[in-house]
Amino acid sequence: xMKALAREGRWIAISLGITFAVLVLSILALRQNPxxxxxxxxxxxxxKPYGLGQMLYKATTLIFTGLGCALAFRCGLFNIGAEGQLxxxxxxxxxxxxxxxxxxxxxxxxxxxxxxxxxxxxxLVPGWLKAKRGxxxxxxxxxxxxxxxxxxxxxxxxxxxxxxxxxxxxxPVAAYLPQLPMESSAVNASLFVAIALAFAVHYFLWSxxxxxxxxxxxxxxxxxxxxxxPVDMRIFLILVLSGCLSGLAGINFILGYKHYFEQGxxxxxxxxxxxxxxxxxNYPIGxxxxxxxxxxxxxxxxxxxxxxxxxxxxxxxxxxxxVVVICQNKYGGAE
Amino acid sequence: MSPKKSFxxxxxxxxxxxxxxxxxxxxxxxxxxxxxxxxxFNDSAFRGLERAEKELAIKKEYIEPTxxxxxxxxxxxxxxxxxxxxxxxxxxxxxxxxxxxxxFPKKHFACVDYAVDPSKTIPGNxxxxxxxxxxxxxxxxxxxxxxxxxxxxGFVGGMDVPLIHKFDAGFNxxxxxxxxxxxxxxxxxxxxxxxxxxxxxxxEIALSQFDQGADVIYHASGSTGLGVFEAAREKHGLxxxxxxxxxxxxxxxxxxxxxxxxxxxxYDVIKRQQAGQFxxxxxxxxxxxxxxxxxxxxxxxxxxxxxxxxxAEEARKLIVAKxxxxxxx
Amino acid sequence: xxxxxxxLRGIVKRYPRVVANDGVDLSVxxxxxxxxxxxxxxxxxxxxxxxxxxxxxDEGTLSINGKPADFSGPRDAIIAGIGMVHQHFMLVKPLSVxxxxxxxxEPGASAVGTWDQDGAKAEVAxxxxxxxxxxxxxxxxxxxxxxxxxxxxxxxxLYRGAKILILDEPTAVLTPHECDELFKTLKGLRAxxxxxxxxxxxxxxxxxxxxxxxxxxxxxxxxxKKISETSQNELAQMMIGDLEIxxxxxxxxxxxxxxxxxxxxxxxxxxxxxxxxxxxxLSLKAGEVLGVAGVEGNGQRELAEVVCGLSAAxxxxxxxxxxxxxxxxxxxxAGLMLAAAAWxxxxxxxxxxxxxxxxxxxxxxxxxxxxxxxxxxxxxxxxELEQEAGAFSGGNQQKxxxxxxxxxxxxxxxxxxxxxxxxxxASALIHQKILxxxxxxxxxxxxxxDLDEVLxxxxxxxxxxxxRVMGEVARADAKIEKLGCWMAGVSGT
Lengths: 335, 329, 493
Known about the structure:
The structure holds three protein chains of three kinds.
Chain A: H1 2-29, H2 34-46, H3 49-74, H4 82-96, H5 104-133, H6 137-160, H7 190-207, H8 209-219, H9 221-226, H10 231-247, H11 251-254, H12 269-279, H13 284-303, H14 311-331
Chain B: H1 3-20, E1 26-30, H2 41-56, E2 59-63, H3 69-80, E3 85-89, H4 94-103, E4 108-112, E5 126-131, H5 133-147, E6 152-159, H6 162-178, E7 183-190, H7 199-211, E8 216-220, H8 225-235, E9 238-243, E10 254-260, H9 262-274, E11 281-285, E12 292-294, H10 306-320
Helix pairs in contact in B: 2-9, 3-4, 5-6, 5-10, 7-8
Chain C: E1 4-14, E2 19-29, E3 33-37, H1 44-51, E4 59-64, E5 67-69, H2 74-79, E6 82-85, H3 97-102, H4 117-131, H5 146-159, E7 164-168, H6 176-191, E8 195-200, H7 203-209, E9 212-217, E10 220-226, H8 232-240, E11 259-269, E12 275-285, E13 288-293, H9 300-307, E14 315-320, E15 324-327, H10 331-335, H11 342-347, E16 357-358, E17 361-362, H12 364-378, H13 394-406, E18 412-416, H14 424-439, E19 443-447, H15 451-457, E20 460-465, E21 468-474, H16 480-487
């Protein structure tokens, strides 16, 4: 596996190089001095605990959704439902947690479990449809995204919102995850949960018999079935587990930052998870770094918006994905 | 000089340069997620900022965040820099402005459409800009009712939320006040923020209201309203714009626009800051304060019957004099 | 004889991992049937792709009928009079023979899509008669037998003016009777002046059909022999090099032993919900190899899958006396995870065994030890457990599967076409492992379309036709002619 990482490393370096070159050329084309822009980036982002903290905060959400996507992709299922799973998990947690009279030491694990459960439920439906009816997961997970979005929006507007807001009631203080001391940036202990989870997923996939089996289903479901693996059950399990991981993404905003569910609070993080997983070549540890890269581009876009249109950094995000996908197809990546 | 030191020196120069340029007032404005370019609310705020730049010689910067967590992120970026006044556009900034304002008590903040929560105090360095859109919508209702030949008018709301209910309630009350026999058809485009960006849905709803006999339709639905204009053009009916003057989006088919002068509000806050008259608290802007109004100019004068104009102006006086209390939900 | 139809000189074709052709020379005299033989991976396919313009050589020259040629695609090769009859037929089933033959170059085609249908029919009938390729031009293709479909493919090539025909393992899908028909057809083509390149690794066919044979080994030509001046043994020796050909010494079946597998009136539904296996009964004893012969697609896959418990019987009962090992017929589709490492492929299906894992941890040490044992026992090349399965040659891939299944110590081993597309060395090894498994007391169900394989390994033979058992015979009493009749669906004794 490490060998594979080393092999991929080359292409990742190349794609980063291309991205950087395009960035510099675009800055020049905008008649700005690249040094000024990088100076600004360094000053406001890299050398400033607040900027770094915001980047880590953004990365945290992306690690969760990236892991959810990577697990499914690694096991051969193109689950693009991270967005909906995120919202389902976050919403369930945000409306249930305030009613749990638990001390902190129990409440936080309970919140994590509820978020995972919500995301898992959202993965369960496509899982069941795929395993039992053969319905393609791309279609079903996409549909579940629409449902999650519309349903949470409706429930918030109709029942759960606080007056004059579009968010739910605040969680009890016992459910707060501690913020990290980075100039009151949003980054919080969810980051450690995310990183621990990345290592856990890595261990699960490469060091347990069940993880091996799930990867086998991804590699060649027919061969797995021929060797006695109950493939339908496993497909179901993969989509549920993947949903659980994405479902946890909401803890970053809800337990660690604002302490309530707000409509569209992480819009796009689920879809960005797809990109994070692709660039990480579906390696869980790689997801951490890939999430950091996308978080950096996002925060950088915000930081230098007064000099450079933020769309440039969105284009760069697309470019990274494109280059990685091209390299993968041309040189036969891990898939 | 070691490379490390020269690196440091570089940033010292950077920050020195920045503080040297701090003489003019610096204003930072943060849009709502995906707000810039809406030809309405956010753009109106931006016009106020641009006017201030031109007339008051301030320095401006703006940020358009991409996700919820970036709102506070952007406000803080300005607050931690050398900005004097930071403005958030939209009720959704309420919490973020509160937090950042507490963290930077020396800086001044303004929030358009700030959601006042009676159980919480507003930090002293925050100005909450509120509009009584129900008042201008009331006048819109009067004009619609007295322009309509079928005695049926329509209302197309964007997302079904309290903010839009203000427009709905005012319009209804105005129409009924002008002519109790008038019927008002009410529809909302949806329950998600997408409902503010769905012209196809807007057109579909408006066509259906025209088919039911309405001949004037008022929309309060962001770019969804572009579909309402499209339907008016197709059915030769009349539409009413919102927030900004939307006449140009469908010339000849926009009866009037119920405006919310966010630009004026933004401009005024900046002006006060510059004059050293910034004072925290709620500023409510209604017909009296000219924070809201309807368009009556060379483009649409001919479209509005004299009786409707007269009745609307009568209503204005009564509202300003608090003889009519306009419902807001 | 009138000179050389095909002359290839010093052909070199390199791929990133392997040199497929390394200075190959090939001369084919006009109007002859010339065999190109060699093990899988010897470079035959690459050479034929070069001749047909699908691949450009890195070095070397081609001449066709004495004229130098440089093809940039199959179109150029077709213009030069070369035609390829593919192993997998590319026919449109609902269309008639004539329509299939002219498809893509219809006579009298107009801009609006009309064409001369009668003309086509007449032309196909004329070709059929001129070259002695017997097939009814107005018949619908889906009603034809496999042998007839192959003739349609040959007609397609002739219609496009081919004088040099390449046939890639044409007998792989045919019954013995159909093979005879094909050989008649090919001899007729030769008589009509065509030159035929016949790719095969079945030496018997080469001896009975061809005029000359060129042998390839490891990307090089070993030599060309006139058939009249050589023997089957000599060709075999050239093919495999210095390896010694060992006659497979089948361990004799040890009489009445316990039954490990019993099928009673078992019917199984196929992919289109039809009954693909119809009321099959059989019994497999410990220490016995039961050969299942027959042309592919007559219920073999369904038989294998129902025995392994992968599909359910629609009727009847399957009784197994223990664990089943299964070497599936399509190793890429059902046997291997091509993108996964060799060790992972060896582990597949055994990963829950306590030797290899606890519920929360794979025992990598034990797995590696097991993998190294398979490498040693099966002479896996390269001996790399981390290498992706897809990067091994076909023979070595098959060794991974057989190694995995045999090492399970199965009571029943189902081996479906275990040596198809596998080179001679690996075949011999796999055959030996099958016999060892039998000697260890397992019952082996050997499903194969290769009669030689069935005859050399089995103790008993049954023939499947159209989902039914046509007949059963002990190996000692088996006669090729009778098996051939059964395979073609003709019963009787």
